[in-house]
Amino acid sequence: MFKKFDKEDITGSTQLKSSVQKGIRNKLVEQFIDLDKVIEEILPKKENFKVIKGRDHLELITAADGTVLFIKHRDYPYFPTLKLLHQYPFILPHQQVDKGAIKFVLNGSHIMCPGLTSPGAKLDETIEKGAIVAIMAEGKEHALAIGSMTMSAADVKSINTGIGVDNLHYLNDGLWNLPKQA
């Protein structure tokens, strides 16, 4: 999604009214488990945040200092950026890939089922189709990507072929390298 994303892909930004900001905060708290404990740190009520519009029906929620925090695409629910996920790793459920899949994930490839079911990988079988997940790597502390489950984890384990997770945002993609938006 963000492989070649840069400043030219941004079409405009909007300062939101406080009622709209409150609505977005409530959606985020509703969507993410345990986010209510840290939402004041991430998006304080006293500070205004912006929505930056991008090509292909993309919205980026930025903090007052211009840091991109959450992403909304018409095909997916809100999901955090990797930088935010590294600060608050409990926001998303985790799926772990084996060492062999790391270089492919970092090049923007989708996560294949065998990469989630092989030795070294850890598959959380409670996760349903369409859920946004953090992609962890065997032997690493921080997430290397964020993706959307294309099938339930139980189906990933039983079918074990094809794409298991759509890679939405990964380390060193265009969004990762995007400077703060003033």
From TrEMBL:
Single Gene Ontology MF annotation: RNA binding
Residues annotated as domain PUA: 93-172
InterPro entries: MCT-1/Tma20 (IPR016437), Pre-PUA (IPR041366), PUA (IPR002478), PUA-like_sf (IPR015947), Uncharacterised_CHP00451 (IPR004521)
Chain segments annotated as coiled-coil in the UniProt record: none
GO cellular component assignments: cytoplasm
Keywords from the named record: Cytoplasm
Classification via SMART domains: PUA
Top-level division of the source organism's lineage: Eukaryota
Gene3D superfamilies: 3.10.400.20
Cytoplasm is among the record's keywords: yes
Subcellular locations according to the entry: Cytoplasm
Gene Ontology annotations of biological process type: formation of translation preinitiation complex; translation reinitiation
UniProt-listed Pfam families: Pre-PUA, PUA
Main location (coarse class): cytoplasm
Family: Belongs to the MCTS1 family.
Name of the featured protein: PUA domain-containing protein
